[in-house]
Design a protein that fits this description.
alpha/beta; binds FE-MO-S cluster; iron; metal-binding; oxidoreductase; Nase/OxRdtase_comp1
Length: 541
């Protein structure tokens, strides 16, 4: 699709973005802003420290561990060891939904558990308080498991959450207790927290239940967190195809699913950034291959279902998948036909965490919209350029601080689901097992790829490109809308969703049509636009 819009050359835009920075800052930011060429993918700087003073979109390691990976599991008590403020954004702000078994089913997601650390604990140590909090949570709820999440002060004062977890696990006997050293300052972003979460769940939970629960085509879905109900839609489609979902990491999940997840025969990955570690560790220890999928976009959903069926090499499954696609597609096509004339040729920009800036280009593409610029907050080079660059990634001190587990095949339970020959054959037939190509091959030549975009750069980009929609999060939303451009939150989906699968695509088409064709944001004028001298000093009277 060709854009009808005229905008400056991408290299000029890059220059313009860097112009205001001091030379050293400009040099560093310059490496994170690249003009894309899908044929000869340029190197992009990623997963490095944000320059102090720059307003970043990023979050912290604790957010990635507690909020992102463990947050959506409903029956693990998530106990935050730290000051109460750290719990605020961990308490039902991410829109990860869950479906407990009936009204009495265990669900701790509606609670906020914190040790409420005070100055006294920072000075004299907080382990005693932590033990008391574990005991209290246990007495009140008798949960199957308690996860302890370390916030910054815990690392600074040296509380040993792992020793406390061990001691309390032994004392209580029937509650799995494990700690996470996910202090906010670890690594350079929430990405570090994902890795820490993967390690501990793998070490303390995966493999505890060997029960074979049946099912012919058993998969785990990794990196799908059920924002706005996405996982519900994917579950519906998998069930309709006859594919058994053993565990979801971690949208709509339970600890029981994790314990049993090593009995699956394939891991499919939605969000590569947050959970590729788990896939690799499970393959090494249990012999389960992994494959990247994408259920964002109707075409992408159809393709992902077909690829799962091809992996299992079962004619009946392949046929069933085709039937499901044929049943689901007409409704999608109907809405798309009605929407496309209104959305075609519009410009989008996507700056989201680590996967969605890539995945949502599919949906915009279906709407005939062009993604002129995109980037991740905390993706790594492989999320941009593809996994082939992994051997060349320079490991800096920030990443070295994150533990790499040494995983070996399980002496009894390692069972390769496919022989290396079969995997090689499937790969030859086009099934890209153990691979992720990254975002850049899917973006047009001349599009701008920007890692860890700063607030200043976003504003400049909007000024220069005048996009029809900007996708980011709540921190950006109102600033962008005050510039006259609608902002779609791709973290929380605002109040919408699901956007995954076929019915999700329909929801998205309708929501975006409404947003890019509403004139409301262009009609507003900020007070300083009317009176220039108010700029920078304006306060509400
Ligand atoms: Fe993966 Fe996510 Fe994302 Fe992410 Fe996130 Fe998220 Fe995200 Mo917000 S796990 S990387 S840490 S897809 S919370 S559900 S939307 S930044 S793009």
């Amino acid at each position: 699709m060709e854009s009808t819009k005229k905008y400056p050359a991408p290299s000029d835009i890059k220059e313009e973005l860097l112009k205001k920075y001091p030379p050293k800052v400009a040099k560093k930011r310059g490496k994170a802003i690249v003009v894309n060429d899908p044929e000869e993918i340029p190197q992009v700087q990623a997963n490095t420290r944000t320059i102090p003073g720059i307003i970043t979109q990023r979050g912290c390691s604790y957010a990635g561990c507690k909020g992102v990976v463990l947050g959506p599991t409903r029956d693990i008590v998530n106990l935050v060891h730290g000051p109460i403020g750290c719990s605020f954004y961990a308490w039902l702000t991410r829109r990860n939904q869950t479906r407990p078994d009936g009204p009495e089913g265990e669900n701790y997601m509606t609670y906020c558990f914190s040790t409420d650390m005070q100055e006294e604990h920072v000075v004299f140590g907080g382990e005693k308080k932590l033990k008391q909090a574990i005991q209290e949570a246990y007495d009140l709820f008798h949960p199957k498991a308690i996860g302890i999440f370390s916030t910054c002060p815990v690392g600074l004062i040296g509380d040993d959450v792992h020793a406390v977890a061990r001691e309390m696990r032994e004392k209580l006997g029937d509650c799995n207790i494990f700690g996470f050293s996910c202090e906010g300052y670890k690594g350079v972003s929430q990405s570090a927290g994902h890795h820490i979460a993967n390690n501990q769940v793998f070490k303390h939970v995966v493999g505890l239940d060997d029960t074979d629960k049946g099912g012919k085509f058993k998969i785990n879905m990794l990196g799908e967190y059920n924002i706005g109900g996405d996982a519900f839609e994917i579950e519906r489609l998998l069930a309709k195809c006859g594919i058994t979902l053993v565990a979801s990491f971690s949208g709509n999940s339970t600890i029981g699913q994790f314990e049993n997840s090593h009995t699956a025969d394939l891991n499919v990955i939605m969000c590569h950034r947050s959970i590729n570690y788990m896939a690799e560790m499970m393959e090494t220890k249990y012999g389960i291959p992994w494959m990247k999928v994408n259920f964002i976009g109707a075409e992408a959903t159809a393709k992902s279902l077909r690829r799962i069926a091809r992996y299992f090499e079962d004619d009946e499954l392949m046929q069933r998948v085709e039937e499901v696609i044929a049943e689901e597609m007409p409704a999608v096509q109907n809405v798309l036909e009605a929407t496309y004339p209104h959305t075609k040729g519009k410009l989008a920009m996507l700056f989201v965490g680590g996967s969605r800036a890539h995945h949502y280009q599919e949906l915009f593409g279906e709407l005939g919209m062009e993604t002129i610029s995109a980037g991740y907050e905390f993706g790594h080079r492989d999320d941009y350029e593809g996994r082939k660059v992994i051997p060349n990634i320079k490991i800096d001190a920030d990443t070295k601080n994150i533990e790499e587990l040494k995983v070996t095949p399980d002496p009894e339970r390692f069972r390769p689901r496919k022989s290396e020959e079969d995997l090689a054959r499937l790969k030859e037939e086009g099934l890209d097992i153990r691979d992720y190509e990254g975002m850049m091959p899917d973006m047009k030549k001349g599009s701008l790829v920007i890692d860890d975009i700063s607030h200043y750069e976003s504003e400049k980009l909007i000024e220069l490109y005048k996009p029809d929609i900007f996708c980011a999060g709540i921190k950006e939303k109102y600033v962008v809308q005050k510039m006259g451009v609608p902002l779609k939150q791709l973290h929380s989906y605002d109040y919408g969703g699901p956007y995954a699968g076929f019915s999700g695509a329909i929801n998205f088409y309708k929501d975006i049509d409404r947003m890019v064709n509403s004139r409301v944001w262009k009609l507003i004028q900020a007070p300083w636009e009317e009176e220039n001298e108010l700029e920078a000093t304006y306060v509400t009277p």
